[in-house]
Amino acid sequence: MSQTHLLDSVPRRQVNFNLDSPELAETYDRVGVRQFNHGKQLIADLDPQPGEQVLDIGSGTGLLGAYVAEKVSPNGRVFGIDPLPHRVDIAARKGQPNFEVHVGRAEDLSQFASNSFDVVYLNSVFHWVEDKPKALAEIFRVLKPGGRLGLNSGDAERPHQSATLLRDAADAAGIPADKQPHGRQLGAVSNAQLQALIDAAGFSDYRGGTRTIVDTVPHAQDLLEWSRSSSFGNSLGKFDPSEETRFRGALQTKLEAYRKPEGILLERYLIFITARKPRAS
């Protein structure tokens, strides 16, 4: 089966990287603990060791990259790439001596030599990658024989509860259709599609499945900040002040239905996978 055919049923999105801003990047660095926490699960699966060379694709503001840099120190290094310059600037200020970050995209890893890395990972990034087969081919090239790939990504078959709530709140608030949030994560793949893509790229030892992540959401504003900053402005259109007020109020009302004694709890559904580049390659 061709890799093009593998993606025939995957919703495509035109991601606008120019929607990001210094304010969104700073907000993400403050509220991005959600991605950081499930990223630590991915890193535990990959088990990077001191001295290993690691590539963090979609490194954002460097929260996870700095964490991994500590794990591979003192002689290992983490290289991060991200297409968003404002986030790269923040990551570069993390001050981790063995963590280096540059602007770049998953589909073009030409700045790195073949067989360079022991570990490559993408934390909440793969659904944003436009040309997934090309990205996987590049990752395969830069991994050493026996090197490990790990990623997590939205599950196309199970939209996050927050995505559904945002869409329902927009409807309730009378937000125009062209400003409506997506009801699911466009660009996400199913478990079967992801395994087929990984296998077609030449990887072996595929292990994966969907995990449920439970977030505590203090209030609607927190969810809005996370949604806008984690999608670098792609998940919600710009609202005028009255629309914003109506939307936030409608969202808070809907969130209250999910309140438990410990707070408002929402589920997210992420596919986690690991695989290896065969040693014989």
Could you please describe the fold and organization of this structure?
With 281 residues, this protein is α/β, with parallel strands linked by helices. The chain has a domain at 3-157 and 186-213 and 269-276: Rossmann fold. Helices cover 37% and strands 23% of the residues. It has ten helices and eight strands. Strands 1, 2, 3, 4, 5, 6, 7 and 8 form an eight-stranded mixed β-sheet that branches. The protein is globular and about 60 Å long. 41% of the residues are buried. The model is unreliable at 1-6 (pLDDT under 50).
**How many beta-strand runs?**
8
Determine the CATH topology of the domain at 3-157 and 186-213 and 269-276: Rossmann fold
Per CATH, the superfamily of the domain at 3-157 and 186-213 and 269-276 is Vaccinia Virus protein VP39
The whole-number mean of residue pLDDT values reads 92
Question: What is the CATH class of the domain at 3-157 and 186-213 and 269-276?
Answer: Alpha Beta
CATH architecture term of the domain at 3-157 and 186-213 and 269-276: 3-Layer(aba) Sandwich
Q: If helices are DSSP runs of H or I spanning 4 or more residues, what is the number of helices?
A: 10
Task: Give me the strand/helix succession.
Answer: HHHEHEHEEHEHHEHHEE
**Spans where pLDDT lies below 50 across 5 or more residues:** 1-6
Task: Give the CA-based shape.
Answer: globular
Task: Tell me the major beta sheet.
Answer: 8 strands, mixed
Spatial extent as radius of gyration: 19 Å
| Residue share in β-strands | 15-25%
Helical content stands at 25-40%
Structural class: alpha/beta
